[in-house]
Design a protein that fits this description.
The protein is mostly beta strands and about 160 residues long. It has a 4-stranded antiparallel beta sheet, with no helix packed on it. It has a 4-stranded antiparallel beta sheet with strand order 5-6-7-8, with no helix packed on it. Strand 10 and strand 11 form a beta hairpin.
């Protein structure tokens, strides 16, 4: 069997940048942390021994991690978006922008990644009315969202993410 990377607990959505091939996994944690990992071939991300900020055990630390607070407890990975879409929001030089959300606190965030680490974090929306299960960049550079609910949820389109 082929193994690309190991030590991830529950990667819920994996995205690969079409520009530079960077791959990110939103990894749903257990009791305390959520993670976004920049995934490399052969990488060891530490689970089940390490979660969140990591340790000195030789495993790769997440690019972003956060504690379970205020209902935020299940990261939902999104998609890479073109750098130009967020250029007016920050002067930070980044390699890529990755969007994501969380089931328990459903706003949309963008993580600016440079050299495999998150160097800037932007909240793109206020909290939404419902939790998300998927967000993806469409061919028209809009973000398409699908919610979670007991009834079928509509696909929503977020056409303006800069400003």
């Amino acid at each position: 069997a082929l193994v690309f990377a190991f030590g991830l607990r529950n990667p819920f959505r994996i995205a690969t940048s079409s520009v530079d091939g960077l791959t990110a996994a939103a990894d749903v944690g257990t009791d305390e942390y959520e993670e976004i990992n920049i995934v490399a071939s052969g990488g060891d991300y530490g689970f089940p021994d390490v979660e969140g900020p990591g340790s000195d055990d030789g495993s790769i630390r997440p690019a972003l991690w956060y504690r379970h607070v205020n209902g935020c407890n299940a990261v939902i990975g999104g998609d890479f978006v073109p750098r130009a879409l967020l250029a007016d929001r920050t002067s930070t030089d980044v390699d890529a922008w990755l969007t994501f959300s969380d089931v328990g606190c459903p706003a949309i965030w963008a993580a600016g990644i440079r050299d495999g680490e998150v160097v800037v974090l932007l909240r793109l929306t206020d909290p939404l009315d419902h939790s998300l299960s998927h967000l993806v960049l469409g061919p028209d550079d809009a973000i398409y969202l699908v919610g979670i609910g007991p009834e079928p949820q509509p696909v929503l389109r977020l056409s303006s993410i800069s400003g």
